[in-house]
């Protein structure tokens, strides 16, 4: 009798794995992952940040770790939400993606400064023709999120010519860069080995994409709203997965989005800029902003400091609530929770 039960149990386990392999289209499931733990050596910053009234938790470890992401999710309620704001029904996708990474650390082991001064660099067209670069480079932490931050520097070096690079506008350093499959760049010349690249996960497919890239599997590009990157310039040790709790905090606590949208409306999600600010609120003591300004009365004004997109592109966006975001930005600047570096 026992033997039968054991056999049934073992075949159930086997079936479970086989189903997973089919689901993922990979055969990498047999490799036992090394449990990735966070190293919590940094002492907490003792003075209270200006933006503390906005948050329920400050100094929250923002990256998921294999060893405890389920436990953390149940403490912070992320196990009660599906993606994009929680891990419910996607736990195995998260686990597999995390098993391909090598670290979930926030800062490197030699860093023992508990109170950090951070700048979040937006991609607003206002950075055009400004010379904030040197100032931006002077912060402890520089958080950025869009693809082209280094493009023109590369352009400048490669051509070795009179093309003025954008380093004057946005600086050279990037500590953290937020990305998603549709936004990450794939030209290896853009890789700064000192940058930690943070995946913001919106759908299970984003995790599958990461796993496929890191295991050199075939990339299935169906189901993305724009063609995702087909290679990753970051090494596994540079990559982290953002805890959906950060995005949930941005959506519900900071932007006050409703939890349910009417059927005829697409649910609104925070833009990466607001997610970057929310991340900064959880790991920094002082937060400054650069490049957060959009001019909606001039739809022809530049949207970014690079390329040719104009404001009209942002205005049409059905997935974001730009009005709510503008109001939030204005509010945190007026209350001196953050400092607005952008000059007129
Ligand atoms: C930036 O400067 C260039 C050249 O001086 C000018 O053509 C362009 O209109 C300026 N852009 C903005 C946004 O001020
Ligand atoms: C990375 O950081 C090291 C140590 O701070 C520095 O020497 C190096 O120049 C940096 N590399 C780049 C590409 O910025
Ligand atoms: C926005 O654009 C309009 C139209 O070009 C211009 O008159 C206005 O000064 C701009 N506002 C800001 C804050 O730059
Ligand atoms: C922007 O437009 C100019 C002129 O139309 C074009 O030469 C340039 O390649 C465009 N740049 C980008 C990034 O699309
Ligand atoms: C956007 O947010 C504002 C302010 O919170 C709200 O009044 C408006 O109804 C929202 N719009 C949409 C389309 O969700
Ligand atoms: C930051 O300050 C500039 C210059 O005063 C202003 O134009 C811009 O709108 C401000 N940014 C935000 C998000 O309010």
Determine the number of helices (DSSP H or I, runs of at least 4 residues).
Answer: 11
Strand content: 5-15%
Q: How many strand units?
A: 7
Rg calc: 21 Å
Q: Decide which structural class fits the backbone.
A: alpha/beta
Average predicted local confidence, pLDDT: 80
Give the ligands present: 2-acetamido-2-deoxy-beta-D-glucopyranose
User: Stretches where pLDDT falls below 50 for ≥5 residues?
Assistant: 21-33, 147-165
What best-fitting shape do the alpha-carbon axes yield? globular
- Largest sheet: number of strands, sense, barrel closure: 7 strands, parallel
Helix content: 25-40%
Measure the end-to-end span.
Answer: 80 Å
Strand order of the largest sheet: 5-4-3-2-1-6-7
| Helix/strand order | HHHEHEHHEEHEHHEHHE
EC number: 2.4.3.6
Keywords: Glycoprotein, Glycosyltransferase, Golgi apparatus, Membrane, Signal-anchor, Transferase, Transmembrane, Transmembrane helix
GO biological process, one term: glycolipid biosynthetic process
Subcellular location: Golgi apparatus membrane
What does this structure look like?
- The protein has 344 residues and is an alpha/beta fold.
- Helices cover 32% and strands 8% of the residues.
- The protein is built from 11 helices and 7 strands.
- A 7-stranded parallel sheet has the order 5-4-3-2-1-6-7, covered by helices on one side.
- Helix 4 links the parallel strand 1 (117-121) and strand 2 (141-144).
- Helix 3 (91-99) runs parallel beside helix 7.
- The longest helix has 23 residues, at 2-24.
- It is globular, with a radius of gyration of 21 Å.
- The termini are far apart.
- Residues 295, 297-298, 301 line the site of one 2-acetamido-2-deoxy-beta-D-glucopyranose (NAG).
- One of its GO terms (cellular component) is Golgi membrane.
- GO terms for molecular function: N-acetyllactosaminide alpha-2,3-sialyltransferase activity.
- Belongs to the glycosyltransferase 29 family.
- Keywords: Glycoprotein, Glycosyltransferase, Golgi apparatus, Membrane, Signal-anchor, Transferase, Transmembrane, Transmembrane helix.
- It is found in: Golgi apparatus membrane.
